[in-house]
Design goal:
By secondary structure, the protein is mainly alpha-helical. The chain has 2 domains: 164 residues, Helix Hairpins (Orthogonal Bundle); 56 residues, no CATH class. Helix content is 78%, strand content 5%. Strands 2-1-4-3 form a 4-stranded mixed sheet. Pfam families: CT398_CC (PF24481), Zn_ribbon_9 (PF02591).
Length: 237
């Protein structure tokens, strides 16, 4: 294989490996972010529940104030009962007292209802906090594993970058510029093999003359259809 072509094939494979690190790192960090998002979601739910509990407590406090008011009305009605003289006044007073008693009963029932809701919300809050503790423990284990994986990736990436720097130092600048122009649009398919007389970049069949030149590997040959750099794979590859 032509020296320059061999360098391009190696450079293409190195670039492909370098580009593979980003999605790997993104995937690893994605696991961490999912756990952190779960914890944030739980915190938001707990905060919402706590605010709802405070609102319910405020309603209970207001209802208790009404209970005091209704009790006072009932006491006042009892005091007035000795002073009334006509049957009309007695009926009016009894009606006022009965209304106050009904309101008092309704207020007490409302407090019981609100307290039951608070109990349910406290239970939900406790379950969420327990779930958060489990996720936090899982997150800690994941962080330790991820840290180790990222460290290994960084070591590997440093070696690959060193290989690339070494290769770039040996390459002809015109050949490198030619490769970079193709790579701008072809990305990691700038240099592709020919299989079954077809370019494995655009998958179009190439003519016999071009195919013959690819097999000889004496010059850098590009696909007549897409412009990618072509090479013939060796048995080892």
């Amino acid at each position: 294989m032509n020296k320059y072509l061999e360098q391009l094939v190696n450079l293409s494979q190195i670039d492909k490996k370098i580009d593979s690190y980003a999605p790997r790192i993104e995937g690893i960090n994605g696991e961490l972010n999912e756990k952190k998002d779960e914890i944030r979601s739980i915190d938001e739910q707990v905060e919402t529940i706590e605010n709802e509990i405070e609102e319910l407590k405020t309603q209970i406090s207001n209802t208790n104030a009404h209970i005091v008011e209704f009790n006072n009305k009932i006491k006042d009605a009892s005091k007035k009962s000795g002073a009334v003289k006509t049957e009309k006044e007695i009926k009016a007073l009894n009606l006022e007292e009965d209304l106050a008693k009904d309101q008092l009963e309704a207020a007490n029932e409302e407090i019981s209802r609100l307290e039951r809701i608070i109990d349910v919300k406290h239970t939900s809050e406790a379950e969420l906090k327990e779930k958060k503790l489990e996720i936090e423990a899982s997150l800690k284990e994941l962080e330790n594993r991820v840290s180790s994986e990222l460290e290994e990736i960084e070591k590997d990436r440093s070696k690959v970058y060193a290989q690339k720097d070494s290769l770039l130092g040996e390459m002809n600048q015109k050949v490198l510029t030619f490769y970079e122009k193709i790579r701008k649009w072809a990305k990691n398919t700038a240099v592709v093999p020919v299989r079954k007389q077809a370019c494995y970049g655009c998958f179009m069949k190439i003519n016999d003359k071009t195919y013959s030149n690819v097999i000889k590997s004496e010059d850098i040959v590009t696909c007549p259809h897409c412009g990618r750099i072509l090479y013939k794979e060796t048995n080892e590859e």
